[in-house]
Amino acid sequence: MTVSEEPKVIFEETLICPVCKSKTLKAVDYLYNTPHTGKLVLSNWYCENCGYKFRDVKPYETREPKLVEMKIENEDDLSALVYRSAFAKIVIPELGIEIEPAGMSQGYISTIEGILEILLDQVGNFCDKECEDRIRSAMEGKIKFTLIIEDESGLSFIKSEKASTRPLILTNSD
C-alpha cells in the first residue's frame, strides 16, 4: 500500500460568513492525493464568530464514468469504506432509494452504514415510517440490499473485495 503525501494548502483566506455576516470565516482548502481517486480538494471552513462549519470533498480531476456496485449481505459488509463524489447518484433498489447529485451536492467518505444514516437524515418528508423502518433494518444488517453508485466523474469507490466496477454508459436525455 502506498502512503499518500500530506495534504497541501491551496487556498487560505478569511471570508465573510454566510450565517453571521462577519469577516471571521477561516477558509482553508487542501489538495490531497489518494491512491483510489487521485487528487481531491478537501475544504475545511470555520467561522470563529458563530461556529458555522463547511466541510466538503471534491475531485480535482475526473476519470472515465463508472458504476460501482456491492451486494450487502451481512453486518460486516456495512463497515466497507465508501467514497461518493459530489457527481455520483446513489441507488438502493431494494429500499426504493435513488439520490441524484444536485448543484450543491457534497462528496463524502463514509461506511455503507454511514451512508444509510446520511440517507435517513436526508429523506425527511420524502419517506414514510415504513420506509424509515426498512432503512433502519438495513443499517442493522437485517435486510440484504445492493448499493449502486453511478458516477460521471469516475472517482467514487467502495473499498471491498465484494464490490464490482464497470463503465457507466451515459445516455443523452432530450
From TrEMBL:
Keywords: Metal-binding, Zinc, Zinc-finger. Pfam families: jr-ZPR1. SMART domains: Zpr1. InterPro entries: Znf_ZPR1, ZPR1, ZPR1-like_arc, ZPR1_A/B_dom, ZPR1_jr_dom. Residues 15-160 form the Zinc finger ZPR1-type domain. It comes from the Archaea. GO terms for molecular function: zinc ion binding. Belongs to the ZPR1 family. This is Zinc finger ZPR1-type domain-containing protein.
